[in-house]
Amino acid sequence: MGRHRGNHADDGDADPRGAEGRSRRRRRRGGAVAALTSAVAIILAVGLTGTYIFLNQSGCSGQDVTLDVAVSPELTTAVQGVAKEFNDQDYAVDGQCVRVSARGVASADVAYGITGGGPTMGDTESQVWIPDSSLWVNFVKENSGDGVVNDTGTSVASSPLVLAQPEKVAEEDGDEASWKTLVPTAAPGADGDDTDVRLVDPVRSSSGLATLALVSDAVGGGDEEGRAQLVAAIQALQEGATPSEEAAFEAFAEQSAGDGASPVLVLSEQAAARYNQDHADAPARVRYPDSGSYSLDYPYVTRTDDPLATRAAQVFRSALEEDAAQKRFQREGFRTADGKADSEALPEGQGFQADIPENLPTPNNETVERLTQAWNQFKLGTRLLTIVDVSGSMLEEVPGTGMSRMQVTTAAADQGLSLFNDRTELGLWEFSTALDGDRDHRELLPVEELASEGAETATHRQDIAAELAGLQPVPDGNTGLYDTYLAAYREMASSYKSDRVNAILMLTDGNNDDPDGVSLKELASTIEEESNPHHPIPVFTIAFGPGIDLEPMEKVAELTGGEAYKTENPAEIGDIFLQAFSQRLENQQGQEGS
């Protein structure tokens, strides 16, 4: 203290303190010309172009320039340490001391506060913003225009995403770490594992959103075939999603200490180092996916048009880039922008590596929007009425399986239950002709939450599994398809829930052959008349067996926003089931509250 930095007016990206940090001059009596000459000499000597620094011989005085900096919470302590040293040295612009005040604000809060595009809490205003990822900067620019924030091109730190496992599990796992094997992505019924993936909700977290994008890329989630696998991935990831990093830490610690599923936590290197500091008795083991990773890049962003505040922000930006500041960040478990790490903060014994993994590109705005919508869509939960054909043709054997169509169908439907979490509401009907008096369908179980208490077993999920296992074809039964479509549509419309996706799944091996039922024309006109565009009820039909006329089923799908599928082999129902369910990714519009 006692000495003061000079003021300047910086109109470029050059170091705004360069000359000032190299020389100081005492004021001489009547030395105005000499002072100006000295300043010019300094500028020429250090080669500053377009940057003019005038030494303030009496130090900075008058009203301070306060620079409010909103920082991603995990970086806040380190930035506050740099800010304190910076303030102690009295850096100045236009003769006024720059006083930096840094506070932790969740990056999502700032981004949503600027755009109004999501939930936000607390004061999100600031002149400088250091989020944890450029994902948020791109989101703001896409939704509020380029002029709202100015990315200076400076990354003050970095931290790649890693996978953390309990140490014993990581040592026993001989497979290479991979985004593709992080979650179950096979069709229903495929052998899974007992891994429980933990991540922070992608709507609130860069690491969560980047994880979703990395998994989507790994399974080809952008194309039709991969979209079905992405559905399974999202379902699995949502089971382990937490609202905050602290909640993820707590859940991971509890599972690590237990005998249940083996947890995998997706987080940044720096977060893993913090977790291990707080859980030194049972630290996690870090693993790096073999295909590379995405790095949190902590961009330095300005949010002010005021010239004085802008120059003050440039001065502080330079302070954050200095060696002393960078070493401070490294001691906190961060890397420099070019990947240099502190081996004591990221110890090799915990799985950390000195070399930064291959850096995968930042997901673009289109990908982010698509995945965020998909995530939110599935968070709504599902109300699904499943209807199974029990007509006489279901007794026919499926070639090469030794099983009847009914056995193959019910097995696939039972396996499809694995797609749905316990919050899903599911109901079960069977249909043929005149099953219940004049009605072609019969309700076996109402649409209720799978985790609710069962009528015959412990849970509704177990009740459905038991009913599926007990389905028997009616030897002389025909296929009352159209009447059942209409009854199911009306049932779901009368019980519609706006906070969920309401849908119907029809599994059948035949065409409509109920001469006493409604015609296709009558069915179509009734659905058109009774449908509500604000209460969509998509109908998905999976038809199998020879001689299927898919056109009527496609008509119903077109009217309701669903889809119709055809296969010669009911053994393929499992894969088609996934494809049908993935149509939810295509039907974002029309959902209330979306």
From TrEMBL:
Residues 7-22 have a biased composition (Basic and acidic residues). Keywords: Membrane, Transmembrane, Transmembrane helix. The chain crosses the membrane at residues 32-55. PROSITE patterns: VWFA (PS50234). Residues 1-30 are annotated as: Disordered. The keyword Membrane applies. This is Substrate-binding and VWA domain-containing protein. It comes from Nocardiopsis endophytica.
